[in-house]
């Protein structure tokens, strides 16, 4: 596999792990592209739980410009953020 | 608050949930804070808690852009309050603890410095009673988290000076909070109405009528409550809720305000809500 393919495989795995986490927390099925805030599934308190979860689970630090709600809208956007911070 | 003509330095007494939350609100708005507690370990925990909450406020765009953070000083000695322009008392919801903290602050600050108590329902005038300058005391009941909830319940005691009220309103406005001033009374407005309702919600769970999730779902979906009473209880902190209910029961005689058995059981078990990771819900290790 090329580096790009590895990265996207990792990203898909992270996204899958996050949809499992969201299902566990929110008690509903969550698709990778579901907008957690628009659907009312998540609120401002839960957003910070997501930050802490990503940092502890994937060993990243989310700081400065990255610390904005848009990055946490969906499992896919969070997986993208983690992948970028890890590279 | 660079454009304000007044510059502030806030003294905060008590490094618990509300003390650290109010500190996060202030430093996030560029106001320097002296956070005082008698327990050095509580202060150490508060350092991380304030940083966490400033990040949270930043995440949800609840802080003004381009304002440098205010400095946070952690202290166990009242002398460090000497230069502050206002004090917020946020110690345990217990009359004696609050009266003692306020007396210590009153001695340390310049006369006329507003002494704001964050009590959720002990009448301000009772707390002001033993102090050398009762006119300096006013109630500012912040909600948790103080950096996300813009409205603050301000309780004006019968002896609160006009200058104290005016200075408090300027301070809150500078912190982008919206004060609503009411007359001093046990439980003020919010705790008088909310706390017995939460207590009843816990009784409903204890009686097996519905799960905590179902109670919250109904209160949200049918009645438009933003989070539901049990999640709100976890956010307040169950020990604080029980203390506030006891204070209300003591002063009103209202039996609905007597902390119910399940609430007291959870407090005894150390399941205090979000701050310990578990209450009526599980929050995981991350939030401890």
TrEMBL record, chain A:
What are the leading ranks of the lineage? Bacteria, Bacillati, Actinomycetota, Actinomycetes, Kitasatosporales
Carrier domain location, by residue? 5-86
Extract the coiled-coil ranges from the record. none
Name this polypeptide is given:
Methoxymalonate biosynthesis protein
From what organism does this protein derive?
Streptomyces caeruleatus
**Domain of life (superkingdom):** Bacteria
Write down the InterPro entries for this protein, in alphabetical order.
ACP-like_sf, PP-bd_ACP
PROSITE patterns xref list = CARRIER
UniProtKB/TrEMBL annotation, chain B:
The residue ranges crossing the membrane are 12-35
Q: Which GO terms describe its molecular function?
A: NAD+ binding; oxidoreductase activity, acting on the CH-OH group of donors, NAD or NADP as acceptor
User: SUPFAM superfamilies, alphabetically?
Assistant: 6-phosphogluconate dehydrogenase C-terminal domain-like, NAD(P)-binding Rossmann-fold domains
Q: Give the highest taxon in the source lineage.
A: Bacteria
- The entry's protein name is 3-hydroxyacyl-CoA dehydrogenase
What family classification does the UniProt entry report for this protein? Belongs to the 3-hydroxyacyl-CoA dehydrogenase family.
GO terms of biological process kind: fatty acid metabolic process
């Amino acid at each position: 596999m090329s580096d790009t393919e590895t990265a996207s495989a990792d990203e898909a795995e992270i996204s899958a792990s996050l949809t499992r986490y969201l299902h566990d927390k929110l008690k509903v099925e969550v698709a990778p592209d579901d907008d957690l805030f628009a659907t009312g599934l998540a609120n401002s308190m839960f957003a910070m739980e997501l930050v802490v979860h990503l940092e502890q689970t994937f060993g990243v630090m989310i700081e400065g410009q990255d610390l904005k709600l848009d990055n946490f809208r969906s499992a896919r956007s969070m997986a993208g953020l983690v992948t970028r911070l890890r590279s | 608050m660079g454009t304000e003509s007044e510059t502030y330095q806030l003294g905060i007494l008590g490094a618990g949930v509300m003390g650290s939350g109010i500190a996060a609100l202030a430093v996030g708005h560029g106001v320097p804070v002296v956070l005082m507690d008698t327990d050095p370990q509580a202060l150490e925990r508060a350092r991380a808690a304030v940083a966490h909450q400033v990040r949270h406020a930043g995440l949800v765009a609840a802080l003004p852009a381009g304002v440098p953070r205010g400095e946070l000083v952690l202290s166990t000695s009242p002398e460090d309050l000497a230069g502050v322009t206002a004090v917020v008392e946020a110690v345990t919801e217990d009359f004696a603890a609050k009266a003692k903290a306020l007396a210590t602050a009153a001695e340390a600050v310049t006369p006329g410095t507003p002494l704001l108590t964050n009590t959720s329902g002990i009448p301000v005038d009772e707390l002001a009673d033993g102090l050398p300058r009762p006119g300096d005391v006013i109630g500012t009941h912040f909600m948790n988290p103080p950096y996300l909830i813009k409205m603050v319940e301000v309780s004006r005691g019968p002896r609160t000076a006009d200058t104290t009220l005016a200075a408090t309103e300027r301070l809150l406005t500078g912190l982008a909070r919206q004060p609503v001033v009411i007359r001093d009374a046990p439980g003020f407005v919010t705790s008088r109405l909310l706390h017995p309702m939460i207590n009843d919600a816990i009784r409903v769970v204890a009686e097996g009528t519905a799960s905590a999730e179902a109670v919250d779902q109904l209160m949200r979906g049918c009645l438009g409550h933003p989070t539901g009473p049990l999640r709100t209880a976890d956010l307040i902190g169950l020990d604080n809720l029980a203390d506030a209910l006891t204070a209300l029961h003591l002063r009103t005689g209202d039996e609905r305000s007597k902390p119910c058995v399940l609430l007291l059981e959870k407090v005894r078990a150390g399941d205090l809500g979000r701050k310990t990771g578990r209450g009526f819900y599980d929050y995981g290790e991350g939030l401890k």
